[in-house]
Fold this sequence. Notes:
Number of domains: 2
Oligomer: single chain
Strand order of the largest sheet: 3-4-2-1-5
CATH superfamily of the largest domain: Beta Polymerase, domain 2
Distance between the termini: 54 Å
Radius of gyration: 21 Å
Strand content: 5-15%
Number of helices: 10
Amino acid sequence: MEAVETARELVHQRYPEARAAWLGGSIARGTATSTSDLDITVLLAGPPAPLRESLRHAGWPVELFVHTEQSLAHYSEKDRLRRQPSMMRLVGETIALIDTDGSGARLQESCRAQILAGPPPLSPHDLAMLRYKVTDLLDDLIGADSNDVRTAVASVLWQEAATLLLTGADHWTGTGKGLLRELQSYDATHGTDYATTLPAAVRSAVNGDPAAMIAVVDAVLTPYGGRLFAGFHLSGD
């Protein structure tokens, strides 16, 4: 409640004309840590929106995302096409701070519906590109001659493999810890354990044993035809 009241106070101070505002991120999910910030999205009727600002307020680090309805729609569509619903989650999966005209509840529900609808399916081109990237990284891991190289490759490979797994199944993806959360969501739906086995495979590879990483990545590739090198073709502009 302290975080919610602090966020609401900040919005009133900086944007008294706000139509709506939402508090999202780890605070809204109930997963905050000692370094968590306040992710606040503010809806204005016009300028100075859209803008983004990082600041500190009452001892809290704050990320402010200030939008109009038009800019919210614009960035939500960009996120939908890249299959990472950051903007939609910043509104849809939140605690309402202010709602002066009903737009807060309406947009929150709209973003939730977009999240539930999922991302667009992979095109054959995008699928082939992901398979090729994962295969190339896997070959680099197999041929690595030091733990430093294995560390560098494995830290990228798990993310590309997770992206193939998720987007190939019409599931949202993400970056960093957001990618891990999407894997956990996928596991809960499909009865798998990729959110555990992929990070564990990275740790094993870093310590000199790439076998687990090779096995789990091959398992991700198998439904899509396995590794792809010979026959891959990419036309230029």
